[in-house]
């Protein structure tokens, strides 16, 4: 009896594991599912591919850049569903496998990727949103203000940047005298090079036009305040 029970349990475990490894749905199902609250949409293409059009509310990390991918994926919630895609399905399948093996409970792939999404006649966001870069001259002028200036180098599609949004909101509510300068990490490449910001998010404090502190990554409010001596 014990052996029969053990065999059944092993069979069920195997079926469950197989089901977890084969969670891929077509564009219609994917589109319907990502409209549910709490779903995280994850694009694992390159930043260049992402800028040509992406799914609604998508976060991005380049799976081919292992350090970037692992850094950004840690800011996704492992307990909430992650709907993942790439161009045709290869990279997202590999990324989904890694995520399942590293504690993500529910990872669903877009079968066929963006190519299948387009074939199904579905629209992408960000296709016609290309905007002029913030010039280095305009950036330098902005940070020359008297008093404190905080430069936020980030992007709406960057997972750790999203995590910092409520922290920044509290910071500027508490310190309204600090001027904010936003640098779009997906667009303002010239400024990023000029300030040597290589990762998102990067925060740079200026006082009376001179840089006094900087740090990359996610912080608590107290740490952000301490960074500038506020």
TrEMBL record:
- Which InterPro entries does the protein's record reference? Rhodanese-like_dom (IPR001763), Rhodanese-like_dom_sf (IPR036873), Thioredoxin-like_sf (IPR036249), Thioredoxin_domain (IPR013766), Thiosulfate_ST/Rhodanese-like (IPR052367)
Residues covered by the Rhodanese domain: 35-126
PROSITE patterns, A to Z: RHODANESE_3, THIOREDOXIN_2
Identify the stretch annotated as signal peptide in this record: 1-19
Every copy of the Thioredoxin domain together lies at: 110-230
MF GO annotations: transferase activity
- Keyword Transferase assigned: yes
Looking up SUPFAM superfamilies in the UniProt record yields: Rhodanese/Cell cycle control phosphatase, Thioredoxin-like
Looking at the Swiss-Prot or TrEMBL record, what is one Pfam family this protein matches? Rhodanese
Q: Which UniProt keywords apply?
A: Signal, Transferase
Name the record gives this protein: Rhodanese-related sulfurtransferase
């Amino acid at each position: 009896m014990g052996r029969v029970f053990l065999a059944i349990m092993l069979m069920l475990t195997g079926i469950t594991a197989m089901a977890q490894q084969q969670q891929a749905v077509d564009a219609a199902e994917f589109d319907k599912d990502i409209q549910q609250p709490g779903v995280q949409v994850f694009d694992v293409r390159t930043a260049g591919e992402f800028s040509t059009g992406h799914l609604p509310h998508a976060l991005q990390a380049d799976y081919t850049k292992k350090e970037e991918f692992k850094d950004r994926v840690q800011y996704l919630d492992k307990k909430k569903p992650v709907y993942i895609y790439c161009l045709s399905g290869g990279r997202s399948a590999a990324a989904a496998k890694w995520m399942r093996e590293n504690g993500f409970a529910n990872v669903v792939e877009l079968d066929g990727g963006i190519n299948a999404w387009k074939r199904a006649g579905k629209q992408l966001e960000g296709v016609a949103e290309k905007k002029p870069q913030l010039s280095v001259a305009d950036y330098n002028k902005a940070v020359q203000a008297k008093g404190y200036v905080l430069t936020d180098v980030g992007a709406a599609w960057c997972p750790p940047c999203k995590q910092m949004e409520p922290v920044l909101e509290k910071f500027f509510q508490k310190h309204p005298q600090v001027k904010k300068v936003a640098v779009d990490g997906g667009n303002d490449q010239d400024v990023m090079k000029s300030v040597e910001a290589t990762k998102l998010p990067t925060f740079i404090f200026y006082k009376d036009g001179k840089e006094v502190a900087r740090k990359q990554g996610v912080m608590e409010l107290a740490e952000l305040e301490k960074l500038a001596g506020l």
